[in-house]
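Local shape tokens:
==================
===
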Amino acid sequence: MHHAYYIEGPLSLFEPYVAQMKPLWAEKFDRFGVDDARALIERSQLKNFGEATFLIAVGSITTEAQQALLKLFEEPQMGTTFVLIVPHGTIIPTLRSRMLPYPRQDDILPLQDAARFNLATQFLKSSQKERSDYVVKLLKDDEGAREAVRALLNELERELHVRLRKSHIREMREGLEDIAKVRSYVGDRSPSLKMLMEHLALSIPILK
């Protein structure tokens, strides 16, 4: 068995995978920084079990944190497995090269993922005013707003990637670049989610 895996998706995948894996240690982070990476390294080195799985879900992860994990994922203790749930396109190439995609578990993925994908398609086909109205509704729940934004960004990105594969249109590439920029700002300590999503509503292409 390989020792390090990644799952690209929203934080909402954390609970279903905890239930399926029953890991020795599991935690989710809104923002995973270098101090969190060092704490994980120390925790994994203290284990005294024959087999152990560590599950980490992150809303965002810094480059410094990923660099700190390089050696851990390349040379883990025997019997140790790491599974990292991250937003799409977040993992740096050097860390990704030390990992494998985790086998997809369709039976445990949240049912709302399909609904989110449909909402993303609808968002891309909507007028700018309709998009702005949707942003207001999306951000109504202050507590869950950041995760809702990340989930929508993931699905918008997925839909634009599908369109880009079918036809290499410049608008699609620019839309993907805008989504990546917004995602990086969403990981800040106090982002203006309304301003970021209003920008995205205006900047990404309207699909037919």
Summary: The domain at 4-101 is CATH 3.40.50.300 (Rossmann fold). The beta strands are 4-8, 25-29, 52-58, 80-86, 100-101. The chain has a mean pLDDT of 84. The chain has two domains: 4-101, 112-203.
